[in-house]
TrEMBL record:
Coiled-coil regions listed: none
InterPro entries per record: His_Pase_superF_clade-1 (IPR013078), His_PPase_superfam (IPR029033), PGM_Phosphatase (IPR050275)
Taxonomic superkingdom: Bacteria
Organism (species): Paenibacillus ihbetae
Pfam families xrefs: His_Phos_1
Gene3D superfamilies found in the cross-reference section: Phosphoglycerate mutase-like
Name by which UniProt lists this protein: Histidine phosphatase family protein
Lineage start: Bacteria, Bacillati, Bacillota, Bacilli, Bacillales
Length: 187
């Protein structure tokens, strides 16, 4: 299986950084939409690939641009996650996930992966490492051998946490992908 991690494009919460980090549910800026549109030229997502998307407006907008009307699945297991984990830092509004109700209202019948009710309440941003790893392993188990390629459209901290869980070592914030960045991992 190949996992392709994609970081969302430039978000509205990054305009006037860091003063807008407490913007609730920021979407992509026009520049972010441009970045993802450029990325679409380099990314080929097939109808039999799994596309997992964080339940935030900016990642869902990224998926909609990349998928070109194909389906994707929204999961809190790939929602925003702090890296490195520091529960003493504030939980920023930009990292609050959309609820299942908000997703249904905004995005209609987009598929929602509902493997854990509690995760929809608290997200994965500041939960303990052992709880996060349990959720992540459950997601990987759910994926199983059903897909040859899995695209994960998410956030820098989340992607870095998954890369470590999948065996990479020594990663730091310097390894973040940045806006509309891509990282491929063969398992």
């Amino acid at each position: 299986m190949e996992i392709i991690f994609i970081r969302h494009g430039h978000g509205e919460h990054l305009i006037d950084y860091p003063n807008r980090l407490n913007t609730l549910h920021p979407g992509l800026t026009e520049y972010g939409k441009f970045q993802v549109g450029q990325l679409r030229n380099d990314i080929n997502i097939d109808s039999d690939d799994l596309v997992l998307v964080s339940p935030t407006k900016r990642t869902i907008e990224t998926a909609a641009i990349l998928k070109n009307d194909l389906d994707f699945v929204i999961s809190p297991f790939v929602g925003p996650r702090m890296f490195p984990l520091n529960p003493e830092l504030p939980f920023l509004a930009c990292d609050h996930i959309l609820s299942k109700t908000e997703i249904r209202i905004l995005y209609g019948d987009t598929e929602i992966l509902d493997l854990n009710v509690e995760c929809w309440k608290e997200g994965i941003n500041q939960i303990g490492q052992d709880i996060f790893e349990g959720y992540a392993k459950r997601l990987i188990e759910w994926i199983g051998e059903r897909y040859n390629r899995v695209f994960v459209i998410s956030h820098d901290g989340t992607i870095t946490n998954y890369r470590i869980l999948l065996g990479e070592q020594g990663l730091t914030r310097e390894d973040f992908l940045g806006e509309a960045g891509v990282y491929r991992l063969k398992l």
